[in-house]
Amino acid sequence: MRILKLTVLVAAVVLFGCSGVAAAAPKNYCADLKGVDAGQACQIQMSDPAYNVNISFPTDYPDQKSVADYITQTRDGFLNVAKSPAPRDMPYELDITATNYGSAIPPRGTQAVVLKTYQQVGGAHPQTLYKAFNWDQTYRKSIAYATTADDNKTQPLWQPTADPLKVVFPIVQSELQKQTGQQVSIAPSAGYDPMNYQEFAVTNDGVIFFFSQGVLLPEAAGATQVLVPRSAIDPMLA
Predict the structure, then answer these.
(1) From CA 23, how far away is CA 16, in angstroms rounded?
(2) Band (26; pLDDT cuts 50, 70, 90)
């Protein structure tokens, strides 16, 4: 009888944990989005005579909810337009692809996923947009472009006393000039606006800033990205 009671107790601990409450399974955001789990990526495909949707995003990023929320908002906004009866020469298109980045430089590591969205909804030109998500592996928080944390959910990218754009903007302007092969003129009001640098990924080599189409350069230049070397900004990083 004593052995039986012990067996039941062990089984209860395995099932419910020490608190006596059954552990909830992690939320399956891929299934909620009607996607197919293909290993470490979720694939979403939708096809109709009026539109095509192809979406892929990693399922191992720690803050899956933020990624899924963005995917949902972008997909639903596209479908609202694509399902309209407006005449079109070809199907509307939405493609979202993901690239993973990471940093292992002390004192802590980071993980990032950058979503690149291509959208054609009948305008003169298609649009290419970036959305980046960064995760601090030590503090277990999202990393925000800021010098101080505005709540308990984010970790700032920069030191409290940093003025990063004095260093970052000249590098960005110089690199974009090299990429385009021509003189680049960016209005200081845009180049020194922190809102234009919200999409980034921390790497061992530095911080890559991603600029959606039309953010710093004319739309004809397309979407761009610039690596700002760690050597130039390391003392300012939080």
Answers:
(1) 6
(2) confident
